[in-house]
Amino acid sequence: xxxxxxxPLQVWLIRHGETEWSRSGQHSGRTDLPLTAAGEQEALVVxxxxxxxxxDHVFCSPLRxxxxxxxxxxxxxxxxxxxxxxxxxxxxxxxxTQEQLRERYRDWTIWEGPVPNGESIAEIAARARRVxxxxxxxxxxxxxxxxxxxxxxxxxxxxxxxxxxxxxxxxETSAVCILGEDGGEPAIRVWNWxxxxxxxxx
Length: 202
Known about the structure:
It is a single chain. By secondary structure, the protein is an alpha/beta fold. It is built from six helices and six strands, in the order βααβαβααβαββ. The chain has a single domain, classed as Rossmann fold (3-Layer(aba) Sandwich), CATH 3.40.50.1240. The protein has helices spanning 20-24, 37-50, 64-73, 98-104, 121-136, 148-159, and strands spanning 10-15, 57-60, 79-81, 141-146, 176-182, 185-193. It has a six-stranded mixed beta sheet with strand order 3-2-4-1-5-6. A hairpin with a 2-residue loop joins strand 5 (176-182) and strand 6. The longest helix has 16 residues, at 121-136. The chain is globular.
């Protein structure tokens, strides 16, 4: 049995599997989309990657694409559902791709906005900091099943970086990342680890 008290805190971030909108590049936000069939397979692969690893704490977004990924990976019964781990609220930008939004707002990115009737980057960063503060009170290893933009912003807050720095942390569906420390400083230990499905044999 592992002694989590003597081990440095590690936070494993798991992005949900594919949805129709993650595949098309549409901004999902709080739209409660299911996983596609491919996304369900991705979640099963996450389960094989994690290999029933015993986490001391498991947290999950309430949105079903995250909770279904958590379930298929084998951890939902242990998970605490945390509304603060929901995806960025994109407001009026929900359902549109970056290209479509650039027709409306020149050179638009989620990091620069605008995001009318949604969360500002400062607001999602404040929400991510609340989560980081709670995570730092945990011991041992922690799993967080959540969403691409939220996890990227959370990572900046773990590292003490401006939230706009999240633009540099590309994160695929069903990818696993590990946050921890290096020499006493907050650090990324693993980023965007993804064990792709095997190629079918004909």
